[in-house]
Specification:
334 residues, alpha+beta, eight-stranded mixed beta sheet, three-stranded antiparallel beta sheet, 8 helices, 11 strands, 39% helix, 22% strand
Length: 334
């Protein structure tokens, strides 16, 4: 999970991006220039933190006996921030990612739970400077979402969220039960990096089943009148990708193929490099297979089964305050 933190590598990468920005054609590609700007900002923040820490340590080593407790606290925070970067230095950690949510057993309950999870991750993005775009949503029959996919853009998006892959379990008093009984719901989350170079992935047309259909927005309302949404099924692997965020069917197909290639590339990495277990997903969305439990009744507790991280404030976490949980898991999941 961890890696070596090399300040010289960060500086070199910064200089490369700055040099690219000098090219008059750099800003012609809005998407690419935006991503490069975000990456540069993140790298500069890391370098600044490192330099500040080094300067403080150099000064305080000379005056160690005179250091105030408040100075120690500040240094500790900076050291912890630098330490965290060593856990975000995996080969793919810096990349954007696709985050999928699928409702499991439980019908309307699980569809509502899927929508709650989507909101949690979107609030996380808003609170931490990440940009997200909804790629696809499939409404539940009565409420919530059967499935959803969002793309999350920003430095270390995959690194922070890779450990969210798995089954998430909710226990609460059902808002859909007139007898106010306690229900257990499940939803699966799968996080895949957006690989920058996937030219090696070959997708044969004969291996694809392509369907087009009407897009649907919140509440099941049609967002346009044409069959612009696209669903691609890769027959050999049974991987399914649906995209509806563009009005153009051609554009949606292009995005769906790019996502499919990222998924196939991740699958190949998993096959050939078992150490890259960050790509593995749990296909069993049932009781007993969860990575984390969110308990709202009869008591309030969130517990991660892999690291034993606990929080007694599920409302805060469900509102997107998950950065402490993510960072704890980064340091403790091997």
């Amino acid at each position: 999970m961890g890696g070596h933190f090399d300040i010289d590598d960060l500086i070199e990468k910064c200089n490369q991006i700055k040099e690219e920005m000098l090219n008059p054609d750099f800003y012609n590609d809005i998407k690419k220039s935006s991503e490069a700007t975000i990456e540069l900002s993140g790298l500069e923040k890391k370098i600044k933190t490192y330099n500040e820490l080094k300067a403080r340590i150099d000064a305080d080593l000379e005056l160690l006996e005179l250091v105030e407790p408040s100075e120690v606290d500040e240094l500790t925070k900076i050291i912890e921030e630098v330490e965290l970067q060593t856990f975000l230095n995996g080969q793919y950690d810096s990349l954007n990612c696709f985050l999928e949510i699928h409702a499991g057993a439980g019908g309307t309950e699980s569809c509502d739970w899927s929508e709650m999870l989507l909101r949690m991750y979107e609030r996380f993005c808003e609170k931490n400077g990440y940009r997200y775009e909804e790629i696809f949503t499939q409404q539940g029959e009565e409420a919530g979402l059967k499935s959803a996919m969002i793309k999350i853009n920003g430095l270390n998006a995959f690194g922070y969220l890779k450990n969210e892959s798995g089954v998430h379990r909710l226990v609460r008093i059902s808002p859909f039960d007139s007898n106010a009984r306690r229900h257990t719901s499940f939803a699966s989350v799968n996080v895949t990096p957006e690989f920058k170079v996937i030219d090696d992935v070959e997708v044969q047309e004969k291996d694809l089943k392509i369907d087009v259909f009407h897009s649907s927005g919140a509440g099941g309302q049609s967002v346009n009148t044409s069959n612009s949404a696209v669903r691609i099924t890769h027959l050999p692997t049974k991987i399914v990708v649906s995209v509806q965020n563009e009005r153009s069917q051609l554009k949606n197909k292009e995005i769906a193929l790019a996502i499919l290639k990222s998924k196939l590339y991740a699958l190949e990495l998993e096959k050939h490099e078992n150490k890259l277990n960050c790509f593995k997903k749990n296909d069993s969305i049932n009781f007993g297979s969860q990575i984390r439990s969110y308990i709202l009744e009869p008591y309030k507790l969130i517990k991660d089964n892999r690291t034993n991280y606990e929080s007694g404030s599920p409302e805060k976490i469900l509102n997107g305050d998950i950065i402490d949980l993510l960072e704890y898991n980064l340091k403790n999941i091997k």
